[in-house]
Amino acid sequence: MMPLDSDRNTPLRLLRRIFRWFDWVLLAFSDWAVEWTPFTLVTTYYIVSTAIFVMCSVQAIKILYFFFMITNFYVAASAAIESFLGLSAVREARRRTIELEENGTRFPSPDEDTPIIDLVIVAYLPNERDIVKDQVLYALEELVYPAEKLRVNLVYNTPYPIEPLETELQQMQHIYPQLRVVKVPGSKSKADNLNHFFTIDTGADVIGIFDCDHFPHPHNPRWAAERFITDPKIDIVQGRCVVYNTDSFYPKMISIEFDKIYAISHPGRSRMFGFGLFCGSNGYWKADLLKAHRMHGNMLTEDIDSALRAYRLGKNAAHDMNVISFEMAPITFKAFWKQRMRWAQGWTQASIVHMPLVWSSPPGRKRGVDERYGIVSLLLVREMSYYLVTQHTCLLLSFVITGWPVNAATFLQLLFFRYPMAQWFLFATITALIFTLYFTQRVRSEFTTWKSMVLFCFIYIPYLVLMATMGLYGHARQIARYSSWNPTARK
Hints:
The protein is an alpha/beta fold. It has 15 helices and 8 strands. It has one domain: Alpha-Beta Complex (Spore Coat Polysaccharide Biosynthesis Protein SpsA, Chain A). Helix 5 links the parallel strand 2 and strand 3. The longest helix has 45 residues. It is found in: Membrane. This is Glycosyltransferase 2-like domain-containing protein.
């Protein structure tokens, strides 16, 4: 007598199929819910917030209007002050560059004093298969540094073999003895790749981390080494990242944004609050610190997490504008959205985990008021600013709904000139934004033009609203426990 489940059409076999199909449906629905829950939450937030403002009393609207004007002025003024303070770092970098040229590219410190540097290029091969060889060859042939003290390490992962590329990369080690190619088995992230590399005893004094799309300036590692030599207290050197593929709309705008962030905002905040940050790429660490530190793969922005963990230990990070690296920006809105979603949620994770930095101190040193205020500004106020900006937007939208303007003059009066005192806050906020843009114009890279800068000025306020919305989306993803790590598209 045959067993009951030997026939494909027996009831037991059919029941198993039904259960497998039911499991597949549940899994698909779960993935769909996690993917679309953030969109639903943010959309609901905008609709409900606008509806509440529509129903508010005149007195409540007046109070809310002034509150949002004051808080947005504070955010804009803080950005302007940071940008102003950051100009000194750019001026100092230019001065040192001029002196280097006048000395015949002879650096202040002798080559024999330079540290041994491991330059680590981190790659996800399917995403970067078309650029990885060029990036490695550039690092091997173009960087100006004592040859016996610079090692180039390609550390990559891939979910499936990519040939003949992988074989070609391995063979390059026979041509360039200073090259090491490491394929990380089982890796699923940049953090896994780096942590695997940290287990290798290379004897380096300093480790520089670069994403695969970066072209460091030829003097990039030498300037970083100079910073470590002249100031032994520095543990991390973060350089300036410059977007170079500015031949389409999105990279043009991102390039100007990066000029603002890396050239003046980061060094300005460092000068204002007394601490710097490692930003993920084009950053150099003392090797012993980084190997002991490692990267936490459960964080979407493991770079910010590692920077804040180092700060918790009392380590010093410096922003150096001579340590320049050129990188690619996303060229489509879809790629831009995926990148910024990961950044937004990653910042939210890091802010939650590291908020105790506000009231704690590193071993043997007490943080000053300026540092604590800087942490509050970085981790709390920045996250809250998403709500301040979007709530103000919903409030203005409610004005349009309840009093539809008949012409442009009425529209402007409705949104910005409802109350006499509010005009002063508006002018002050706009002035702060203009100063921020002016300071950005002063430091913009050679890959942007004044025409792009003018266009950026026109879209700056809508862009701030978009970034605030992305911040809310990051919060919603964190609530929904979204955990996919999306690499930035290179095409």
